[in-house]
Records
---
Amino acid sequence: MTKLSVNINKVATLRNSRGGNNPNLIKMALDAENFGADGITVHPRPDERHIRYKDVYELKPLLTTEFNIEGNSREQTFIDLVLETAPHQVTLVPDVTGQLTSDHGWDTIQHQEYLKATISIFKAAGIRVSIFVDPDPRMVEGAAAVGTDRIELYTEGYARNFPRNPEAAIAPYVEAAEKARELGLGLNAGHDLDLNNLNYFSQQIPWLDEVSIGHALICDALYLGFENTIQLYKRQLAMRSSL
Ligand SMILES: CC(=O)[C@@H](O)[C@H](O)COP(=O)(O)O
Ligand SMILES: NCC(=O)COP(=O)(O)O
């Protein structure tokens, strides 16, 4: 069954807006686990506008589910943070400095040497590595060649096109996911997944290992409550019907 990793960046964004500790990020992470999350994802950025490096150090010993740290490994501070906190998984994302949010995957061919070297650092420390890629079979082949354990498919394009034409929206993702399976890569997905588009994605690619979801899930929680929302997302991943 596909795991749900709850991205708590937006909880930190809300907390930081007033400078205090409300909402309490640690409590919300632990509550997310109690409410059924299979993991917690954070994506620290150098300006610490949401998750702070200090949060990551505090979270690690307290979490009981899978901890996934996403970020830009071109920053030495990110590499140090990951090696010092030793999460279950690190997801390498080719962010550029000052980027609003992640908006593209790795070019795994152009950056082959860099990725090989960086992935080997994390793997030597016993940390599973996933790399963020666009749904392009060539990029998936490139990912296998650099030695990553998993890929994370960047799903913003799927989410954007889903309301108009679900079949067309999912097609490149199924192709990329099949390539990943053929090459023996684990498979994650994330970005803009929500209660409307998650079940279809999950049913079309049932071998998906994990989704990480933050923005929509935290927005839904404002209306539906945090516990209920996590359960609703889990249900989308569990539901199987003849489409
Ligand atoms: C890697 C990725 O897909 C992003 O979705 C990111 O982790 C989300 O975090 P932000 O919403 O803070 O950009
Ligand atoms: N890796 C994607 C992620 O962690 C959350 O993305 P989003 O749901 O906030 O768009």
---
Amino acid sequence: MGGPAKTLSQLALTARGGANPQITGLAVDSREVKDGFFFAALPGTRVHGGEFIQYALRMGAAAILTDAKGAEIAAEELAASDAALIVTEDPRQALAYTAALWFGAQPEVMVAVTGTNGKTSVATFLRQIWSELGHAAVNLGTTGVEGAWTAPLAHTTPEPITLHRCLAQAAEAGITHAAMEASSHGLEQRRLDGVRLRAAGFTNFTQDHLDYHDTFEAYFAAKEGLFRRVLPPEGTAVINIDDPKGGEMRAVAAARGQTILAVGQGVGDLSLLNQRFDATGQDVRFSYDGKVYQARLNLIGGFQAQNVLMACGLAIAAGDDAERVFETLPHLITVRGRMQLAATRDNGAAVFVDYAHTPDAVSTALTALRPHVMGRLIAIVGAGGDRDVGKRPLMGQAAAENADIVLVTDDNPRSEDPALIRAAVLGGAPCATEVGDRAEAILRGIDSLQPGDALLIAGKGHETGQIVGDDVLPFDDVEQASVAVAALDGRGV
Ligand SMILES: CC(=O)N[C@H]1[C@@H](OP(=O)(O)OP(=O)(O)OC[C@H]2O[C@@H](n3ccc(=O)[nH]c3=O)[C@H](O)[C@@H]2O)O[C@H](CO)[C@@H](O)[C@@H]1O[C@H](C)C(=O)N[C@@H](C)C(=O)N[C@H](CCC(=O)O)C(=O)O
Ligand SMILES: Nc1ncnc2c1ncn2[C@@H]1O[C@H](COP(=O)(O)OP(=O)(O)OP(=O)(O)O)[C@@H](O)[C@H]1O
Ligand SMILES: N[C@H](CCC[C@H](N)C(=O)O)C(=O)O
């Protein structure tokens, strides 16, 4: 994949001294370098990639891309080598454009969506809409590549080499439409800079990832990069103007000359007017271009209507007819691990699995379940290890404020002591019950369900493993829920 060797100049790169070798492949990790490769030695969060230039040269690298620091670290080895050297202030951006040129093809219609919560949901709904309209479509993000062509992904927004390899494979497989998620890490690290977008969406902005971005301002600046840098001026920005940061994002996009399509509740170009909830979903009324529409959504959770409207806005912005887009809405199905009905007890009580792993998502998910539930709302929450520590008590608080009963349990403790993470979550939910073992928490939560009650198991959604230290132990909330219901109600799974 990537075709035959290309010279540096074919990749729009200029090396010091004008060297122009043939490149046989690209690598961002020195351990993947082979003879004739281009190695991007990037400044890292733990170490500078310049430390691995010596190894890459030994493996036969024909060209090295780095910044001044990387060139300084490997000055001696570079001087002794005849590999071409490209030094730039922003090697991550250069890598993104190089990967785009190397792999060449991208699906013809590409859009991206950013925001703290809702990216996977919007991208998945958009892919479903496109598929209903007859387009060969995929969505790419936290749940991998899904749709007419599938592949696993390790990141929500893959690094440029993986991303462009994947886009080129999708294009070669006949995929014409792709909706991708733009994570703040991905934007900040310029992973999307070489992607040709027609439209981009902004869902919302609340607390997450402050372990990486340090401040809210830096976190927002990363997200803004989608409209400030990646989406071209002729693209359409689909903005949720209900979010307190929506106005700011709209101003960034407008200043760049992008067309704005505002989505909101009772305001905006695509405006949600009413919602009526029942046990299996909701009926929605909305307006677009001066006309009022009504549609059935077989989706649980009021916020999913906002995500659906954002997906509609992106489909329209990317070129589809609005009336035809709206006709697809009754066919949309639950996104894996997002307000997914995992099991139902014999007494009718329902168990939902959801990926809420931020304070706002926990409160949104629980608030959204209320109108679908007659009895009590029980929540199981936990927070991930090696992630934003500030969000832990806030997640506990969000659960305590919006559920009738809360159980605090483990969610990917990674390298941390799970008891300390639980203690931090319990700090915001002092009345909660602590049950470290997640399977036991699920069993106890389900055991307590009475007729009309519902249980929300938050945090892991589609995930299939519990990360403890360096081990990934098989664990699937949906599976655990159905096993527990079967055991308690005396049926086979
Ligand atoms: C924090 C973060 O985003 N790190 C990403 C970053 O790596 P880094 O800066 O930490 O790398 P490093 O370990 O300091 O090493 C520096 C450089 O040396 C290279 N290296 C390292 C060792 C070696 O032997 N040889 C070598 O060449 C590395 O490939 C790297 O380019 O650049 C790497 C290459 O592009 C990424 O793989 C890596 O993602 C790591 C694995 C990661 O877990 N990222 C997560 C946090 C992430 O990106 N998450 C987002 C957000 C999800 C969400 O919204 O919830 C996502 O898009 O998935
Ligand atoms: N529009 C929304 N507003 C607030 N919360 C939402 C919204 N959409 C989804 N959520 C909550 O966030 C959770 C994660 O949703 P989703 O996976 O779509 O977001 P994401 O941005 O892709 O997250 P990540 O990048 O971390 O995977 C959902 O399970 C739900 O609890
Ligand atoms: N993309 C998010 C997912 C978090 C999911 C939750 N289960 C956790 O492990 O904290 C992250 O890596 O921060």
